[in-house]
Amino acid sequence: MMNISRQFVALGATIMTMLCLGLAASPARAEDYLLGVQDRLRVQVAEWPTLSGDVVVGAAGEIALPVVGRVNADGLTASELGHQIATRLQEAAGLRDLPDALVEVVAYRPFYITGNVTNPGEYNYRPGMIVLNAVSIAGGMYRSDQRSAWDIERVAISSLGEVSVLDLRMRDLKAQQIRLKAQIDGLEAFPMPEAQSDIEMTQALDEQQRLFEDSRQRRNAARANLSASIASLEKELDAINISLRDSAARREATETELAQVRELVKQNLAVQRLAPLEASLAQTTRDQQDLEISRLRAEQRILEVRSELTQYDELRRAEAMGELQRVNAHLREVEEQRVALAKLLNGASYYSGEAALALEEDDAEPQYLIVRVDGDSVTETAATEQTRVMPGDIVKVIRRLSGAPAPLLAN
User: Fold this and answer.
1) Is 396 helix (H, G, I), strand (E, B) or coil?
2) How many DSSP H helices and E strands does the chain contain?
3) Has residue 146 got a pLDDT over 60?
């Protein structure tokens, strides 16, 4: 029983606390609202349509109506202003009875909110507002949209990895430059630069040296094959020339013998030898013509192979120059990427500190101040989430980091 009684007592205290908070946060009645500058009102006077309509409380705190003239509204409730209008109309028109005049607030004058809220600015006032309502209308507390420290650190780590990859790529490209320039110059040995302290660069040069040696061997083998073809064709040409000399000698001997036989034939001697000699001379002439054609072909083929040998070197040089241009362009691109990543890393280094401060500020407890203007006096007072907001108030929302001095209050 004792435990049950204590539970009822605790429950009762909780309910009373909730009721008190609810009363503290409940809006004030509209009839208690005091009018002020910028309030938009709707006036309705029975049987007086010229006096009915919407009016705005001017800078002097007054409204202007036909017949009645200027009526002070500042600091009055809507019902009090209605009574003022009715009294002024009764006096101005000489009415026996007090007319019915009704005043309603169409739009309340604004309040203002500034500081660490999502959407600071000017908003319409609502009767019974508290600071928590004002912050909600302004979109709630502002949260920094900067990246978290981990996001920035992740960008930095990723960028560092990309920089390392680009550095390796730059070493490879520079090693390729050395190899291609050596090939263009027709060098027989890879021009190893001075001792490299960079292991990756040494490895890249070793790889390019192997490619250079392989290319040099293939080039020399191709040139050797072409040179061997030229030598073989030259030997063939020499053999043809020897055959041509032998053929020319045989022809000369045959022509001499044929001339002698023809003289004998005129004397009716050695007639049977004429035909064989003429046939032999004709065959020797045909053989000599074939040898001349073979010689021309051999000479032409030698010229073609020599031209092919020369063009082979020029073609390989042109290919190396084209590849070198692509390597240079790629190297410039990689260098630009590296510069861009270096800038990104510098920015990440800067914003990592900014993000940490922003996150710390977002986690700080908000503090509230209310600036209130009353005539020529301006007051600034500390507030809580349950503090009432009045029309025309300026609500300042501040996040103060731990250890920071408290905000100064205006007198």
Assistant:
1) strand
2) 6, 10
3) no
Predicted pLDDT of residue 21: 36
C-alpha span between 153 and 160 (Å, rounded): 10
Tens of pLDDT, residue by residue over 186-213, are 888 888 777 666 788 888 888 888 998 9
Tokens coding 23: 């009363």
**At a CB cut-off of 8 Å and minimum separation 6, what does 254 contact?**
277, 280, 281, 284
Q: Give the amino acid at 324.
A: L
> What 3-state DSSP class applies to 395?
strand
Beta-bridge partner residues of 53: 43
Local structure of 64: helix, strand or coil: strand
Q: State the DSSP H helix or E strand holding residue 62, giving kind and residue range, or none if neither.
A: strand 62-65
Name 272's Cβ contacts closer than 8 Å, sequence gap at least 6: none
CA neighbours within 13 Å on the CB side: how many for 326? 8
pLDDT of residue 362: 55
pTM of the entire predicted model:
0.40
* Residue carrying structure tokens 């605790």: 10
Q: What percent of the chain has pLDDT over 90?
A: 26
Say how far apart CA 234 and CA 114 lie, in whole Å. 100
Cα distance between residue 339 and residue 115, in whole Å? 39
Residues 210, 193: Cα–Cα separation, whole Å: 15
Query: In this structure, which amino acid lies at residue 102?
Result: L
Is 370 strand, coil or helix?
strand
What is the token pair recorded at 73?
A: 């509204």
Residue 175 in tokens: 């090693």
**53-56 and 62-65 beta bridge pairing:** unpaired
Residue type for 186, please?
G
